[in-house]
Amino acid sequence: MWSPSQVAARRTAKRRSTYYASINVWPFLAVTVTLLCVFLVSGKPLHSYLWVPVDLPRSTYAAAQRSALREDALRISITRNGDVFFHNFRVAPEDLPGHIHDALQEGSERKVYLAVDTRSKFGTTASVIEQIQTAGIRQVCFLAEKIEGQ
Q1: I need a surface site. Which of 82, 107, 118, 128 has the fewest CB within 10 A?
Q2: Phi (first) and psi of residue 146, to 5 degrees
Q3: What does the DSSP 8-state code read for residue 147?
Q4: Is residue 47 part of a domain?
Q5: Of 148, 106, 116, 110, whose CA–CA distance to 132 is shortest?
Q6: What range does the domain containing 136 cover?
Q7: What was the pLDDT predicted at 42?
Q8: At residue 2, does pLDDT exceed 60?
Q9: What's the pTM?
């Protein structure tokens, strides 16, 4: 039996493409899940900082301090609100001589790298420097960002 709908259905079937464009996302998903599992199981944080992030002062004459990046370098950071960090651990300023002495026993260089936020109070910085001198350290390096020539 003939009907116009059957003829129309045959015409549209002839016009259809036999190729179908589709994106297979399963390989991408498998790689993403694998990387997620590796980072979660490894135990290390995805972005571990050597320093507590502070806004360093800027200077045209800053010199590179490559030994500040060593793992055993004595790093002290002072944040904007006055918190003091030895390596990445918050400490009280009066506890600094003990921490510095322990680090020196492990073989650290007798030089402190001090990262002070530009908006921190001078009194906090002065008390930290006093505690560093109490620990017997005379070399203190203030870190700054270098501004390219203006």
Answers
A1: 107
A2: -90, 130
A3: P
A4: no
A5: 110
A6: 58-146
A7: 72
A8: no
A9: 0.66
CATH at residue 140: 3.30.420.270
User: Can you give the C-alpha Rg of the chain in angstroms?
Assistant: 31
Please name the amino acid found at residue 116: V
Looking at residue 8, its pLDDT comes to 79
DSSP 93-146: GGGHHHHHHHHHHTT--SEEEEEE-TTS-HHHHHHHHHHHHHTT--EEEE--EE
Encoded tokens for 141: 């390096």
Based on the fold, state whether residues 66 and 116 are members of the same structural domain: yes
Do residues 84 and 137 both lie within one domain?
A: yes
- For residues 22, 27, 29, 35, the Cα torsion angle rounded to the nearest 10 degrees is -160
Number of separate domains in the chain? 2
How many other β-carbons are positioned within 10 Å of the β-carbon of residue 140? 15
Amino acid at 136: G
C-alpha to C-alpha distance for 81 and 69, rounded to whole angstroms: 25
Q: Which residue has the tokens 């709908």?
A: 5
Look at residue 43 in the predicted model and tell me its pLDDT.
63
Q: Sorting pLDDT into bands at 50, 70 and 90, what band is 149?
A: low
Where does the pLDDT of residue 65 fall: very low under 50, low under 70, confident under 90, or very high at 90 and above? confident
pLDDT of residue 84: 94
